[in-house]
Design brief:
The protein has helices at residues 34-40, 54-57, 60-67, 78-83, 154-165, 183-187, 190-200, and strands at 2-8, 13-20, 23-27, 44-48, 71-74, 97-99, 103-107, 110-116, 125-129, 132-136, 139-140, 143-144, 172-175, 181-182. With 201 residues, it is an alpha/beta fold. It has a single domain (2-200), classed as Ribonuclease Z/Hydroxyacylglutathione hydrolase-like (Metallo-beta-lactamase, Chain A), CATH 3.60.15.10. A six-stranded mixed beta sheet has the order 1-2-3-4-5-6, with helices on one face. Strand 8 (110-116) and strand 9 form a beta hairpin. The chain is globular and about 45 Å long. The chain starts with a strand and ends with a helix.
Length: 201
C-alpha cells in the first residue's frame, strides 16, 4: 500500500491518495484538490469521504465527474454534500453509495472498512484500509475533533471515544489535519478528552 498526502485549502485539510494493487482511492478531496489529485493518480477507482464538512468534500464532484468514479459518503452526512449547512458556497456533490454505520466494503477488490464514530458530525467515520486509519476529524495527533458545530453532539462524541478505547489492535492514524500518529498513542489521551467533553455538556 502506498499513501500520498497533501494539505489543501485554508484549513490545510489532508487529502490522501491510497494505492493498493495499482488502484487509487481518493480520500477527502478538499478545497483546490483537483489538480493535485489528477497529477497523482494513474488508476483511480473511488472517492471516499470521512465526513461531510466542506473542507473535506469541496472537490468531490469535480474529481468524481472528471475521473468517472463513484463517491462514497457516510449516510449521516449526505445532507452536507447537498445543503451546504455551514454556508461556505460548497459545490454540491451526490454520493453514489451512502455508507450506513460500520460497514466493510469491497471497492474494486480492495477491502475498505468504514468505522462509524459520530460526534464531530452525525456520520463522522474512520476509513480503515489495511493497518491504516484515515481518521478524518475524529482523532488527530494529541487532539480530537470539535463537537460544537451545528449537527455535532458531545454525547455522541463521548460514546465514540469510549468505543475507540475498546479497540485492541493498533493502527497508524492519518488524520484530516496535521501529522500521523498511532491509535495506541492516542488511546492514552482519550480518557482526558472524554472528561473534557463531559465538562461542556
Amino acid at each position: 500500500m502506498q499513501i500520498k498526502m497533501q494539505p489543501m485549502g485554508p484549513y490545510q485539510t489532508n487529502c490522501y491518495i491510497v494505492t493498493v494493487d495499482g488502484k487509487d482511492l481518493i480520500i477527502d478531496p478538499g478545497v483546490n484538490a483537483t489538480e493535485w489529485v489528477f497529477e497523482n493518480v494513474s488508476n483511480p477507482v473511488a472517492v471516499l469521504n470521512t465526513h461531510g464538512h466542506f473542507d473535506h468534500i469541496w472537490s468531490n464532484d469535480a474529481v468524481k465527474s472528471a475521473l468517472h468514479i463513484p463517491l462514497y459518503c457516510p449516510k449521516g452526512d449526505v445532507f452536507m454534500l447537498t445543503d451546504d449547512p455551514l454556508g461556505q458556497g460548497t459545490p454540491k456533490s451526490l454520493p453514489d453509495y451512502e455508507v450506513n454505520g460500520d460497514k466493510t466494503l469491497k471497492i474494486a477488490g480492495i477491502k475498505v472498512r468504514y468505522r462509524h464514530f459520530p460526534g464531530h458530525t452525525p456520520g463522522c467515520s474512520v476509513i480503515e484500509i489495511g493497518d491504516a486509519w484515515f481518521s478524518g476529524d475524529f482523532i488527530f495527533e494529541q487532539s480530537i475533533g470539535r463537537w460544537d458545530f451545528p449537527a455535532s453532539s458531545g454525547e455522541a462524541m463521548i460514546k465514540s471515544l469510549q468505543k475507540a478505547m475498546q479497540i485492541e489492535e493498533d493502527y497508524t492514524l492519518y488524520p484530516g489535519h496535521g501529522g500521523t500518529t498511532t491509535l495506541k498513542a492516542e488511546q492514552k489521551l482519550l480518557p482526558l478528552w472524554i472528561e473534557q467533553v463531559k465538562r461542556t455538556l
